[in-house]
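Input chain follows. Return structure tokens only.
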Amino acid sequence: MEILDIMLWASLAMFVAGVLLPKKYGYRLAAAGWVVFGLRWGLSTPEYYLAEHNLMYTVACALAIPVTLYLAYVMVKDERESLMVLTKSAAISGIFYFPFSYFQWLGGWLIGVTTDITLAAVNSLGQHATAYGDIIMLNGLPVQIILACTAIQSMALFVGVVGCIKAPLDRKVKAFIVSVPVIYVLNVIRNTFVISAYGNQWFQIAPQAIVEWTGEEASYASFFWAHNVLAEAGSLIALVVISYAVITFLPETLDYIRDILSLFKPENVKKNLRGERVDEAKPLQLKS
């Protein structure tokens, strides 16, 4: 097991322990978990996402270290409830996601199912794609379906959000339905779009510049624009819309989000760094 994997498992263990232990110890252990978690993602940037030319994930990973260090500091200093709820969400998400990531048979099963469904979706559009294991070939251009192509990370995120909020079961079930299954369906549409765009060379925009930057063949330009730009932007928009739907059923979530975001206001950052306590955001009066 590589050091980055060990760090990820260690952060999950600290999240779980932080949630379960009494407040006196829980906040400090959870804070340590965020430090390790941020370091893990920050260190992975040059190894993976930058090498994959994934701009959005590269920026997110680059910000991981300063953001998590700051949140960990506030957790220890103020024992802020919203940050412990965030930790609980991360723990639940990790417990849901890690088995698919680290048990090859389970991840392989999900990849296989997603490959079959995506292949059927591509061919339902009148195209003639074929699959060789987890690789879908269209017009001689291959796209490999990996674990990230199954949307398991995004689904785990919302499993964590729904699981961490104290609310009646019926509202939590509705929030789950409008998030996790919808994300999977949208992801199949995303895969279908990327494979179709690449296989049919829809976006041969500035191919020479893409070749010089990535070292790939000129045909890769269509994959780059479809996957790394358009699909990522579409995924971001979809996550915002789905988040709104989840908040509609679980308005309690909004109070925690507002409180966490308030920590990043310039005046509050200055107060925290000076060791002053920042008041928690006042709960919104929302009708249930």
